[in-house]
Amino acid sequence: MIPRALKRLLHRATLKDPAYRFLFAPGPPGEAVAFDCETTGLDWRRDDICSIAAVRIKGDRILTSERFEAVARPRAEMRAEAIKVHLLRESDVEIGAPIETVIPRFLAFIGGRPLVGYYLEFDVGMVNKYLRGLLGIELPNPMIEVSKLYYERKYGDAPPGSVIDLSFRAILNDLDLPALDQHDAFNDALMTGMMYLKLRDLKERGVRIARLRDVEEPQTTLA
User: Fold this and answer.
1) Residue 23, pLDDT above cutoff 60
2) What is the model's pLDDT at position 222?
3) Domains and CATH numbers, the chain
4) 57: Cβ–Cβ under 8 A, 6 or more apart, which residues?
């Protein structure tokens, strides 16, 4: 596997359209973008993006007035399992924009800012699927995975045998954050942004998330 730093240099050199060199420049100081995709299924090779949303984070604020939302018209068939999750029907996405017009707008919105997400690898992989064809590159932005931040704050010092729950719901509950309707791309991006800010604050203050004792210590008895 090519190291990410080397891949970034290669992509910068092979970028098809120099108008997108801004992706390789650092974003504004103290800013990041939380984003999420809804898709026709969970196989990035066969499935397509049907909606994508992002919101900017500046310092300790989520700028809901600076958001990106788009419904895309997928080429892949909408899988029944996916429709049950995000509730987007064939009739909803038929009026969406072609993904080839959505991706450039998304890139203009994120710029070179770090990307924040929950299981970000999948969403980034879906965007890269189109980006390789359009520009010959993958997203070069720094990545911030909230489940990793949460794991470090709650389970980083957990003993062997601890029960680990990295679900979206568990993170919301532990951080005492509101649960918006999930599997709506903007709501998911917004909740992910809130997770990031709270986890970053806990880390900066050296505070860990309390957990129940998962493994009982051996009991000793007197003979």
Assistant:
1) yes
2) 37
3) 4-145+158-202 (3.30.420.10)
4) 31, 32, 33, 34, 63, 116, 193, 196, 197
